[in-house]
Design brief:
about 210 residues; four-stranded antiparallel sheet; alpha+beta; 2 helices; 8 strands
Length: about 210
């Protein structure tokens, strides 16, 4: 039995009652603007999400590059402040410089140390957040792709095809006729396992052939 998987208006008939078909051969095409519009919207949404993902990934890469540059600058400033501090510390111990110069070097060292540690933490958190956002975006994209495939399947179901090799019978469809979802469209009788009832003596059974 062939029933309408999707409802719609009969747009085209490719065969007539009694035609012999192979599996997958189209029988008729239904038109359903709601289903087709949903597919178009779904395709557009997937395209928009894909585009937004690419933009977000590019922005994230640029943001990471900027933060790595900031990290490099902070690391360089810290190393230089550490060098001057260690040098001034020795000079102050030797009373070669005054306390003001020494404290200035110490303050600069402590400041660059805190800044370096803070920059490291910002970079670490940014990396974690970027991975989480990327994972969420990919999951959303995957779900939308699955929905899109379902929509494509629904549109594909508007073309009614032969489920098996056989001869179509009881075809009930005319151009412009509206068919509801689940409504009976036709019957297809397989070429194998056909039973014939007739008053034929068993002596002649081996001589019975099609036609």
């Amino acid at each position: 039995y062939i029933d309408a998987v999707q409802g719609g208006t009969v747009q085209a008939k490719y065969v007539e009652d009694g035609a012999k078909l192979t599996k997958g051969e189209p029988i008729m095409k239904l038109a359903n603007t709601d289903v087709e519009l949903s597919l178009a919207n779904s395709e557009n949404n997937v395209y928009n999400v894909q585009t937004q993902m690419q933009i977000s990934q590019n922005n994230a890469k640029q943001n990471t590059v900027n933060k790595l540059q900031t990290m490099a600058d902070a690391e360089s400033a810290y190393r230089e402040a550490e060098r001057i501090y260690n040098l001034d510390k020795k000079l102050y111990a030797q009373k070669a410089i005054g306390i003001q110069e020494y404290q200035s070097a110490e303050n600069t060292y402590n400041y660059t140390l805190r800044k370096r540690n803070l920059t490291r933490e910002i970079l670490r958190q940014d990396t974690i957040m970027t991975k989480e956002q990327d994972g969420q975006a990919k999951e959303q994209y995957r779900q939308m792709k699955n929905s899109l495939e379902l929509m494509r399947k629904e549109v594909s179901d508007l073309t009614v095809r032969a489920p098996i090799d056989g001869q179509i019978t009881q075809l009930d469809a005319e151009i412009g006729q509206n068919k509801n979802k689940g409504e009976h469209l036709a019957q297809i009788d397989g070429f194998t396992g056909i039973k014939v009832r007739a008053n034929v003596d068993e002596h002649y059974i081996s001589r019975v052939v099609p036609g």
